[in-house]
Amino acid sequence: MASTETTNGSSTGPEAESAAQKLLAKHKEAHPVEVEEVVDEEDIIHPPPSATFSPKDTTESDSPTMSDIAKGKKKVDDAAPSAQKKKAELDLADQDAFPSLGKPSTAFQSTWGAGKANGAKGPNTNGTSATSKPASSAPAYKGPAPVNIPGRHVERISLAPQQIAPRTQLKKPLQEILLDINKRSKANVKAFSGANGNMVFEGTGKPEDVRQALKEIVNQIGTKQSVKVPIPASVRPHIIGRQGATIQAISKQTGAKIQIPKQEDLAAPIDEDDDVMIDVIIEGDALGAEMARREIQRIVSERTANSSLKMRDIPIEYYPFIAGHENSPIHNYDEQALKIQVPHYHTWRGQAPHKDRFAPQPSMPIQISGDREAANDARQAINKFVKDELSKHTAAPTQGMERGRHQFIVGDRGSSAEEFFQKTGCAIVKPPAGDDSDELYIIGPPENIQAGINYAMDLAGKVQSAHFDISKPHNSVRGGGAPHARNMARYFEQRNALQELERLHDSTIVLPADGSTSAEVYAQSYQNAVKTRQEIMNLISAHPPSRFHPMPVDPFFHQQLRQREAPKIRREHGVQIVFPDGHVEQPEILLVYEAPGSPSEYAIPRESPSDADKRQHEQAIQEARKYLEALISSQPAIVSRDVEAQAKYHDKVRKYVDHEQKDLGQGQFPVQLLFGGPTTQRSPSSFSLRGPDNQVTNLDSKLRAFLEQEARDEVERNFTTSFDYPQKFANFLIGKRGENINKLRDDYDVEIQVKDGKVELKGPERKCADCKKDVLAQLRKFEDETTHVIKVKKDYHRDLIGAKGAQVNRLQDRYGVRVNFPRSERPAGDDDATEGSVRNYRQQAPDEVIIKGPKKGADEAREELLNLLQWTMDNSFSGSISIQQSQLPQLIGTQGREIEQLRLATGCQIDTPRGDADKDGRVEIKLKGTKKQVEDAKKILLEKSKTFDETVTKNVEIDRRFHKSLIGPMGANIRKIVVDAGGPDDNRIIAGLVRFPKQGQEENANAIRVQGSKSMVDKIIAALNAQVKDQADQVTQTLEVPTAKHRLLIGRGGESRRNLESKFNVSLDIPRQGATGPAATQIKVTGLPSDVEKCKGHIEELVQDQEGETVEVPRKHHNTISDNGQFFRKLRNDLKVTVDHGGAQPPPRGAAGGAKARGRNVNGGSAPLITDEPDSSAHSWELVDNTDTYTGTDGDSPIPWILRGNRDNVAKAKSQLERALSEASKPSWTGYLILPDAKAHRLIIGPGGSQINSIRQQTGTKVQVPKNGDEGEAVEIVGSKEGCEEARDIILDIVAGGAGAGAGVRRD
């Protein structure tokens, strides 16, 4: 078919085109116009240029792109020379343009791919890529180009005789049809004969009227055409469109009927990368069918410009020749456009190569990806190369050689497969690591085979080997070393224990097999072989028979033991279980002791274990063995039972058994299903159940009933029922990619078809009824579903979703709904082509949130989401503040303390920037929260920013010998300087304001950095300089003070020293305690000369006035007077008098008599129990004579009390000591009173101690109440016997009377 357009009688010949024509052709290619979408000739604002079109002479590369001409980048005159115009026809019978119409001589071959590249050659190896040859040069028809000439538009179509219906099939003669169309149409159509017997129809008028008239003519006189268009199955959804929108539009525009296979009828691809081809059938008149075909091919071209193919039918033995042979067709493709990956092959898998014929291995295909047409071309070229060259001239003889040498011929330690091929013209294939074969296969042309064998022998001859017997170190054990050698070899292989040795010494280790005990080591150098052998012998020595124990276990238990028990035994007992290989049916497992703990942390030992270690090995293995034996013995007997069932039921049996055993309890082993086949002695129509006797019996009865029911169902398989089902829920019933409908088919074993508002079920009547019930239940659920669309600004989506979807997941779980937020990254149009998906709603807008689910749940979820949205909006006021980036660290603070305090104080969310500053060095801080929170945070930040902006930094140079004094003790001096200058009183902030150089810093060692407001900085620097000036005039004088008097200058906690330094503005250097030599008594005073003199005079006066007064105190009264040190502290605090004993050792503190009295009742009974009622009579009382407390024999010998201090104060202290000594000499008693309730102690003390002080004054005794208030602790009363008893009575009265009892109340 051809199309011709004329303009005012002029024509354009096929040999040349104008620039306008080429421009229109390119525009038509970029923006294809459908029949209805023609250009309005009356559009005077944007009138298109006039043009003609010749399909046979126009190609994509003949004209410049639209942007070159339309945008003025290229002159129209340069596009193509003008030529004489000639009419061109749109010939429907043209087999090149329309191979699917008329009566083509060959079947239609669909092509895809937009790119056309020169076939540049390039080398190609395994895994490399290549490019396609040029695609077919046949011109592609672009459709009739519209011609807009004021007042006239002309188009022609040409129909071949076979495309026109016979006269007898026409309702009217041709002339009457034309007459009728011309009457009804605004266009004028004429018919005349063309070349080759074709009939030409020419229409004149507006473009839309002309095309509609021509379509009507073809519809009335044309024959019906049927076109088959093969397309990839992956494009099927895009041709259908959402709810069939795309395919319906094509049918409506072209009038053609389009049939596409159903989803369930498609063949499943072998893997995810494969794309199955399906046929689309187009039926209609010649023009409509062709237009529909072109539109479908346009969609296919857009979606599948590139292709990925896998060639699975080529024997893998040919791969090295396809990748490396100089005549291989893959060298004809440029790797930039077409990628061809040929897997490496130098080790056979699954089965060894056959000497006479090679078999394909689909698991290792050749992969071709790139332009679809080029990929198909490459596949055909490779197939032809294999058929014509390789399959006729390739042989594969074998060559025996020790397995250990294989790795050094080709592989990681030897030559590469490519190098071997280049040198010999042959490929070499070796057995896999787990195979015991020692045969190498040399594959290639017969004339090159010997060269390949010779080269392999040369490589193998360079390898050094060492042989040794691994059983020899343990030949003395019972039963000989051979069984132990086999156990070790089995364990080492399972543990991959030798791989590290092979890598370390670049060697290959071959362990013994088939009952042998001889191992082999192969390496490039003899030295490496010997080292490897020695390492292996160390391993063997470290694994004596005590580590191993074979144990027979029925293979039925192996899988479950491996999954459930083996990890537990390894973790708790340190015993590793080695199971037989999966393809070996043998009962023996091997217990190997390693060590308790994680297997990943276990390091294989290389030293011989001690005898104690061996006993530990045996004990752990024994415990593991007993555990396994107990576990297995607790199971019923393992039995097998055969069941007859036709092979067609086997899949159903598997599903049924899996379903029945999915809820087995802990410790139960599932029954195994063993089906017959060519490798078993079982009949293909039978299977066996193997497992515990009770489970097998139970499952056998259920299976037989199940099979009987299946047989009855098979008779009823043709039962059919149908019922109405709303078409709008059809996609929900089908589910995404048919998941839901396929599940129904599997669950109920019925066929389900959904079409035209009905569901048709075919299968057993009972199962159809159950399936119908389920489908209708789902329908009720679908009908109850409600969809709410909420408009939410994109700014709030993140808050509504929550961290990691927490908010959305909570709503979905609580209300059983689905909440969908828009995906910003989802490309538009992808969901439009999804067929069979539950997403049949319109495209989700960026500001929409969709809630979908049961009506009640959806309503409640919407309500809660709206409330959350309102709260988010109320708390989503935002603001920002700009600050200098250099101020950001101060604002954040150490470890974020400052910014966190600001967040807590205002409740505002504050986000500090992480990116770079702007050109002015400023960054923006984001604020978010309520309006008040944002305003408060902004106000504080503005104040801080203003402070930061006013902040200045100055450095002052001060000799570092002054730094310590400027800082002062505990930073006191620098803190005073900063506070006086108007700064803060916070040591942490002060450390940032005034920064001294670090200890040992060499660069800028004297520079002190001061930062803050200008006035504060100036004051601090002035104070620092003033102090330095004063310190420069300072002098240091030394004062001799006896070591014993140093503590007078230091005071408690250094208090006296600080007072002296502050009072006289000096620095004191007092030697440390324990110093020796002359410096031990030298105290240095540093300061201004006048201050130093004043301080020296004060110290000398203080030391000179420290006269010593000695009072002799009997040793038996020492502890009584000192009162646990309280007497010493009272003298020191009140009179500044210290007490020492001149080196004499004070008597030890003896146990008071009360220690023996505690816990005894006054009547000799036990102390009251905690569980007793709090009765005042239930107390414990003990009265002890203090004269009997000193247990030593030297109680009357004196101990010196030396009083030191001011003369007047020493006299006062002596007077107090003498009075205390007089009191201690008088008869004294101590009473121990234990009350039943320790809570009563607070009543004895009274408010502010008023009660206990009253008791002391009234009775003349010392009363001590326990501080901790523990049960059983005694109240101590010290004084005369009468005073102690009186105090006791008062206390008991207080306790009996409660908080209202007063002191001095006596009992009768």
TrEMBL record:
<dbReference type="InterPro" id="IPR036612">
    <property type="entry name" value="KH_dom_type_1_sf"/>
</dbReference>
<keyword id="KW-0694">RNA-binding</keyword>
<dbReference type="GO" id="GO:0005737">
    <property type="term" value="C:cytoplasm"/>
</dbReference>
<dbReference type="Pfam" id="PF22952">
    <property type="entry name" value="KH_11"/>
</dbReference>
<dbReference type="InterPro" id="IPR004087">
    <property type="entry name" value="KH_dom"/>
</dbReference>
<keyword id="KW-0677">Repeat</keyword>
<feature type="domain" description="K Homology">
    <location>
        <begin position="1227"/>
        <end position="1296"/>
    </location>
</feature>
<feature type="compositionally biased region" description="Low complexity">
    <location>
        <begin position="113"/>
        <end position="146"/>
    </location>
</feature>
<dbReference type="InterPro" id="IPR054548">
    <property type="entry name" value="SCP160-like_KH"/>
</dbReference>
<feature type="region of interest" description="Disordered">
    <location>
        <begin position="1140"/>
        <end position="1160"/>
    </location>
</feature>
<dbReference type="InterPro" id="IPR004088">
    <property type="entry name" value="KH_dom_type_1"/>
</dbReference>
<feature type="domain" description="K Homology">
    <location>
        <begin position="1105"/>
        <end position="1222"/>
    </location>
</feature>
<dbReference type="Pfam" id="PF00013">
    <property type="entry name" value="KH_1"/>
</dbReference>
<dbReference type="GO" id="GO:0003729">
    <property type="term" value="F:mRNA binding"/>
</dbReference>
<feature type="region of interest" description="Disordered">
    <location>
        <begin position="1"/>
        <end position="149"/>
    </location>
</feature>
<feature type="domain" description="K Homology">
    <location>
        <begin position="950"/>
        <end position="1029"/>
    </location>
</feature>
<feature type="domain" description="K Homology">
    <location>
        <begin position="1033"/>
        <end position="1104"/>
    </location>
</feature>
<feature type="domain" description="K Homology">
    <location>
        <begin position="223"/>
        <end position="301"/>
    </location>
</feature>
<feature type="compositionally biased region" description="Polar residues">
    <location>
        <begin position="1"/>
        <end position="13"/>
    </location>
</feature>
<protein>
    <recommendedName>
        <fullName>K Homology domain-containing protein</fullName>
    </recommendedName>
</protein>
<feature type="compositionally biased region" description="Polar residues">
    <location>
        <begin position="51"/>
        <end position="66"/>
    </location>
</feature>
<feature type="domain" description="K Homology">
    <location>
        <begin position="717"/>
        <end position="780"/>
    </location>
</feature>
<feature type="domain" description="K Homology">
    <location>
        <begin position="875"/>
        <end position="946"/>
    </location>
</feature>
<feature type="domain" description="K Homology">
    <location>
        <begin position="784"/>
        <end position="870"/>
    </location>
</feature>
<feature type="domain" description="K Homology">
    <location>
        <begin position="384"/>
        <end position="461"/>
    </location>
</feature>
